[in-house]
Amino acid sequence: MNPIIAEIEKEQVRPGLPKYRTGDTVRVHVRVVEGGRERVQVFEGIVLKCNHKHTRRSLTVRRVTAGIGIERTFLADSPRIDHIEVVRYGRVRRARLYYLRSRIGKKATKVKERRFR
Amino acid sequence: MVGIRGRRVEGERQMAKAIFGRKIGMTQVFNESGDSVAVTVIEVPKTVVVRKRTKERDGYEALQVGFGEVARSRVTKPYAGQFREARMQATRHLRELRHVDCSGFDVGSQMGVEQFEAGERIEVSGTSKGKGYQGTVKRHGFHRGPMAHGSKSHRRPASAGSTDGARVFPGKRGPGQMGGERVTVRGLRIERVVPEKGLLLVRGAVPGANGSLVEIRSRADGIKG
Questions:
Q1: B201 touches A: beta carbon within 8 Å
Q2: Which of A16, A85, B19, B125 has the fewest CB atoms within 10 Å, counting from its CB?
Q3: List of E strands, B78-168
Q4: Which of residues 25-84 of B touch A (CB under 8 A)?
């Protein structure tokens, strides 16, 4: 990549994001502007996939509410994201958890926990 | 005077500012409202006015500008003479900027990204990427024929006109060289100016390959891009 562009992208990176990977359960705090008022909305779910490419990082979070799956993709470095917290670490064997989409019920939201030694 | 797209414009068409730059490439940045915006990064080198074209002497007004570093051995004698007359160091490129506001500039005066500011409407010209010799489907957007059912007219240009004309009329679109020509994109917006590094971040795409020379112009003739 061109060094000038690399530098511009580096400036966009926000420091202090926690380390997360696919399978983790995260809480994304999003700043929403509603009729001139700003508030923080929380979106909690399993990280379906994440992209750490270059400095344009993104993550897709899936949650199931009332039997309906909702997926949201966030630009991790966006100033619209207040912060991200990791609720649970998951142990998965895939980089992209698309198989969760075809699961129904309890299985759809369960991922084994990652244990640290 | 009739302006662009046939609209009438009062008086002479006057550009306020213009400058040359190098297309670096594209990326995305976040703006103040937090939106991610696709931008083209243009590096504007230090530019000096080498000569002024005047109505009396040359029949038109323009600024001849030089920019980019060059080794002394690479400067040909005719070029070296131009710079000697202006008493300055030779530059790699020597170009003219027409339809600019020449007042305020003299031989030796410098210009850079500072004359532009974020939010400004601009137009950018460059040399488009060469596509080679292309058929009518890619070059002019002709429809193609059926790919099967016995048809052989897959991507052919088909008829070139009626038999009554007994000839092909000039301007008939056909296959030929595509790209590698001067293209102007209007109505672009400057997203950000980085004066320390001489960078312009322009919202959207700009013609040409990365590393190619582009001309950036503001529009002062009252027409919104």
A1: yes
A2: A16
A3: 93-98, 110-111, 121-127, 132-134
A4: 25-30, 34, 36, 41, 43
In CATH, B2-130+182-219 is 2.40.30.10: yes
CB of A73 within 8 Å of a chain B CB? The answer is: no
- Cβ of A3 under 8 Å from any chain B Cβ? no
Q: How many CB pairs under 8 A join A and B?
A: 33
- Under DSSP, is residue B175 helix (H, G, I), strand (E, B) or coil? coil
Query: pTM here?
Result: 0.81
Q: What is the pLDDT of residues B106-145, one digit of tens each?
A: 888 889 888 898 888 899 999 999 999 999 999 999 999 9
User: How near does any CA of chain A get to the CA of B27, in Å?
Assistant: 7
For residues B46, B51, B55, B59, the Cα torsion angle rounded to the nearest 10 degrees is: -100
Q: What's the ipTM?
A: 0.76
Domain ranges of chain B: 2-130+182-219, 131-178
Distance, CA of B65 to CA of B89 (rounded, Å) = 12
Determine the Cα–Cα distance for residues B97 and A114; give it in Å rounded to an integer.
Answer: 64
Of the residues B24, B27, B113, B193, the best mutation for testing chain A's interface (the one with the most A CB atoms within 10 Å of its CB) is B27
With beta carbons under 8 A apart, name residues in chain A contacting B28.
Answer: 56
Residues B46-83: tens digit of each pLDDT: 999 999 998 899 998 889 999 998 888 888 999 999 89
Evaluate the CA torsion angle B185, B186, B190, B196 in order and state its sign. Answer: positive
| End-to-end CA, chain A | 38
* Selection from B172, B170, B171, B148 nearest residue B158 by Cα: B172
